[in-house]
Amino acid sequence: MADSIPTPFDVKLMNILATLMFAACGVLLLAAAAWWVLRQPFFPIAGLKVDGDVTHNNAITLRANVAPQLAGNFFTVDLAKARTAFESVPWVRKAVVRREFPNKLRATLVEHVPVAHWGTEAESRMVNSYGEVFEANTAEADDDLPRLSGPDDQAGHVLGMYRELVPVFKSRDLELDELDLSSRGSWQATLSTGAVIELGRGSSDEVKARTERFLRSVRQVAAQYGRSVDSVESADLRHADAYALRLRGVTVAAEGAPAPKKK
Predict the structure, then answer these.
(1) pLDDT, tens digit, 9 for 90 and up, residues 99-143
(2) Domain region containing 162
(3) Do strands 125-128 and 114-118 pair parallel, antiparallel, or not at all (unpaired)?
(4) Residues 4-24 pLDDT 10s
(5) Residue 229: how many CB atoms within 10 A of its CB?
(6) Which of 28, 51, 97, 242 fits a 20 to 30 Å CA distance from 173?
(7) Is residue 25 part of a domain?
(8) Do 120 and 106 lie in a common domain?
(9) What does the pLDDT look like over 39-51, one tens digit per residue?
């Protein structure tokens, strides 16, 4: 029997290329068919589960607000957009959204924990424990939260300074109610007694040192005029090695500081 004639190399190459092309076309057709099927209303989202920290929201309200913003079915819904929709709800700080087979979405939420009001009383903004400013109904927060203010991008810095000053005032039985950072970097504190204290500029250590120096002597100075520390109306600590003090009914410059100008 005669030996078979070997297949030329160019023919083998053409056969391989043809096979690869047919396989590629088959894969593309299958992918297109699968994509078409997945985009049909055969796999609707049948449920939206909400868990996690929902102290200020309830699952029913969340589903009602978010569901209309979800487009697509179980396979095609954009989870990033779903997360954004949840995080746009007041009080929600972070959301993790995932598919739950066969036809549900589950959202795990973390809410803001307010530690202070932010801005003026007319604003509905607060600061959370991470120093982030967020919008929410302030009536739902505790009534005894302090009020902080300043440039929004400095909210974390303001919160940090507040936390450092609270024990300084508390050591003298005084309560810090408000703290403001001006656009020029100057600090102003308001106590629960209504006293407004100009703390000046500088690092946290410098501001704390001025505050502690003021608190060490203010009671004695007030007593010299028959007043208690609760009678302090305002104080200006921006003088070198001294402070200007205003008592209700009395105006005096302490430790050689120039008396504040009358307005």
Answers:
(1) 998 889 999 999 999 999 999 999 999 999 999 999 999 999 888
(2) 114-254
(3) antiparallel
(4) 666 666 666 676 776 777 777
(5) 19
(6) 242
(7) no
(8) no
(9) 555 568 888 899 9
Residue-wise DSSP of 217-232: HHHHHHHHTT--GGGE
Give the Cα separation of 27 and 225 in Å (integer). 93
Query: Does 225 reside within a domain?
Result: yes
Whether residue 83 is found in the same domain as residue 142: no
Sheet holding 47-52: strands in order across?
Answer: 47-52, 104-111, 92-100
Pair 148, 131: CB distance under 8 Å = no
Radius of gyration of the CA atoms of the chain, in A: 33
The answer to whether residues 138 and 192 belong to one domain is yes
CA distance linking residue 206 with residue 5, whole number of Å = 96
**β 232-236/176-181 pair status:** unpaired
Of 91, 111, 131, at which residue does a domain stop?
Answer: 111
The number of beta carbons lying within 10 Å of the beta carbon of residue 239 is 18
Separation of CA 63 from chain center: 23
For residue 210, which amino acid is it? Answer: R
Q: Which amino acid is at 5?
A: I
Which residues fall within 8 angstroms of residue 6, CB to CB, at 6 or more apart?
Answer: none
